[in-house]
Amino acid sequence: MDVKLFSGIASNYLSEKIADYYGYPLSDVELKKFSDGEMQPIINESVRGGYTFFIQSTFSPADNLMELLLMIDCAKRASAGYITAVIPYFGYARQDRKDKPRVPISAKLMANILEAAGCDRIMTMDFHADQIQGFFNIPVDHLQSKAIFLDYLKKLDLSNTIFASPDVGGVKRARDYAKHFERDLVICDKERVKANEVKKIVVIGEVEGADIILVDDLADTAGTLCKAAEALMEKGAKSVKAICTHPVLSGNAFENIENSCLDKLIVTDTIPLKRASEKIEVLTCSKLFARAIRNVHEFKSIEALFVQK
Q: Residue 193's pLDDT band (boundaries 50, 70, 90)?
């Protein structure tokens, strides 16, 4: 079957790089809007019987998600053979359980909506929680950003490094890096007042004189990362860097990072930076997604892309 790569407006910067690595140009889709803002995507070439990949991260605003759903519906009604939603950053994934009365499980709702729109497959990177894969009744290719970050970290001197998780929920993620490089692990136990506001952080483990690398999946206001870095330095760390997959970076995030004791924050380009910062370095995930798309089309293993010895 033919392969067609389509991009949503918000992720066009990334889709162009993915298409370049893949070796196919992006296919022709345009987005028209009515005067009230209602969207009408139009696919300007045949997709009948073909493999269609729609690339769009679902970060704010919600129009990005709606555009993706409408493009999928276009392809479904045009008799596309197999529809894959490529969602580098899967938004609304932080609410993956009922942790208090009368709140939504938005990650499950997103799964239901994408399936209802006509998706045959989901491809994404670093869900906020691995178990979100179980919310889908269709195949999910869950790529891991460590395939990108490990290559970066191998170029550094890690002889004095300790890896750290900025909260208890991210311990498994940080432990993977610590085990891979045979380094120690420490944990930052945080107490929140409310969403996006951390009351205090307690460091569990010894960090005296060490270079710390914090590992997280996303940075929103970056409050947790910055407070964790501060707590680590107060306990005697020599320096603190952070690696983080998704740079949501809302509110005062840039100011928080630039005024923090973080030496550097290394992120991927699943979400475009709102502005440049000397403290933020961006690594592209486009090559990983291009290879994953090719492996799906050619019925090859996805796991082989991120399992490193």
A: low
User: Do 113 and 196 belong to one domain?
Assistant: no
Q: What is the rounded distance in angstroms from the CA atom of residue 142 to the CA atom of residue 144?
A: 7
Same domain assignment for residues 248 and 212: yes
First to last CA, the chain: 34
Question: 200 and 265: one domain?
Answer: yes
Average pLDDT estimate for 143-170: 94
In the prediction, which pLDDT does 200 show?
A: 74
For residue 194, indicate whether it is catalytic. Answer: no
CA angle at 273 for the pair 187 and 153, rounded to the nearest 5°: 45
Question: Which residue out of 4, 190, 227, 241 is catalytically annotated?
Answer: 190
- Strands 82-87 and 51-55, by their bridges, are parallel
The span from the CA of 89 to the CA of 1, in Å, is 27
Looking at the structure, tell me whether residues 258 and 296 fall in a common domain. no
How crowded is residue 64: how many other Cβ atoms within 10 Å of its Cβ? 20
pTM of the model: 0.94
Q: Are 63 and 16 in a shared domain?
A: yes
For 112-122, how does the pLDDT look when each residue is reduced to its tens digit (9 = 90+)? 999 999 999 99
